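Cross-posted from the bioinformatics board.
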Amino acid sequence: MWAYIVKRLLQAIPTLLMISFLIFSLLYITPGDPIDLILSTENMKITPETRAAIEHEWGLDRPFLERYFSFIFNAMRGDLGTSYQTGQDVFQEVMARMPATLKLTVVSMILALMISLPLGMLAALKHNSIWDSLATVLATVGVAMPRFWFGLMLIILFSFKLGWLPSMAYATIRDDGFFKFLRAIILPASSLALGNAATQTRMIRSSMLEVLGQDYVRYARSKGLKEKFVIWGHAFKNAMIPVITIVGGEFGGLLGGAVVTEQIFSWPGVGRLAVNSISKRDYPMIQGITLLLCTVFLMINILVDISYALIDPRIRFVSRKQ
Amino acid sequence: MSDELKNAAAEELLAEETVKDEGDIGFESLPVTSYWQDVVRMFLKNRIAVVGLVMFLVIVFMCCAAPLFTNYDPVSDIEYYNVKQPPGGAHLLGTDHIGRDVWARLLYGGRTSVLTGVLVALFAAAIGVTIGLVAGYYGGTVDALLMRFTDIMLSFPFLILAIAIMAALGSSQRNIIISLAVTSWPGFARLTRSQVLAIKNSEYIEAAKVADFSNPRILFKHVLPNCMGTIIIQLTLTIGGAILSAAGLAYLGMSPNVAKPEWGAMLNDGKPYLRTHPYLTTIPGVAISITVLAINWIGDGLRDAFDPKMRK
């Protein structure tokens, strides 16, 4: 198993190189000079000599490939450069924001599972009942709504009309306690969770229905096992296998979806930082954010694959060589 | 997938290579329905799918024939003295922050929003299907390289890439389409490739190879038609997804700040008035949701209609 993990980690390297190259080229062709943008916001004027000095310091006067390779070599040493805007170390600034984004995605994933698991199971076990219809309605309506718009509707209802929850707040468990944290995160997390709850409900329902029709379930029933054991001991485990893959893959979507959600709820995460940095042409920051987000995403994927193999004994790490 | 698919393709091959003997017993005595006729029949049997189709056609018609449904111009009719009027009265859905008719902007804006979704899906399909076909058919190194690239694209939080592309190209509706198409194709490539792998070794492809058809001819005349079902389903679902993502980009302020109406931009316009005039945000969102719902219902119906297991 360790060999497999090491192999997967090594495989992540070319992916990250490719992604950083993509983003680097994108930024290279992006119009708009970062120096001009900063000057215009600060309302300053500088001499051509100063400008040349800044360009030299930021490496903007060097050729494309040289800039790319120096970025890569520095990144390997953990140095992602300093932000054009704040002068802070990019790695530290992004990592300071990362917990907020991760909390948001994890809590919304938990929320989504809290809705989709019971609902999907009920829909499958009580096929063609009212629960089944409810699950189908949630699954179709949930994916049709823009997530951020659903968030706005939550704000209108729970913050403005009812006044129950704050529309923008940030709290951490350590500083403010669990209850305050929950109050702050519940709206953004719900808004982010909606789409996933919908797809998962649908997935769990169809996967469970398929498993319930299998021979081994019929056999388990025919040998007189209690229905409880048939469902939880035999059907549920097998039905969850495809669901786990889907759930793992959804983390990437959540990290991306968090961008807009963080914007709406003024959540101090990486997504907001990304939008800000892109509009300010803060090249080192954009580079750092994409690289670190992708790293997180790849790590999650590897974890999902490992847990997948642990749950399903039919999958052996060796057999994955293809 | 599919004996049906294979049969259909085999029939096509037969029709191409040999002249049908109309005198054969089988041809007259059995009612022959083609694969596509079957699909259409199955689709029309599905009530939700038909409701979705009708909803979508109504929406498209209302947007295209917008002048029939409103007397206001979405851009030039600005009533400065009459801003942020709630729905009802002379303005069916009220007026926005500078006094334009919301209903008119909704109708005209639908043209842009729906067209954006359709174009994104078409471009993404064009890129993804080509890559999937080539990767699946040629296999080997080509396949490994292309799929590695596809996986990399998939492992990227796509909205961030889309925003970065928007920043690079500048904000305009055309660039929203480009950035979403560039980020939406990997799904098509994956699906098409897996279809091609399933089809590649079937007898009619062997036959076509033996007949010394050129690779492009085999790919586009024999392999592609048999992937069509999967592609059409994905195409439908991508339209819905693209409408949602385009709205998200526009909401982040990525759409050009021009007077031209668009649903996502309308949401962005309503942003400052969320507390005081929530209908400015609610209405465009409802329009987006209903449209995407209709499209997804069509997609689900197509999925069932193309699924041979569903056909009895």
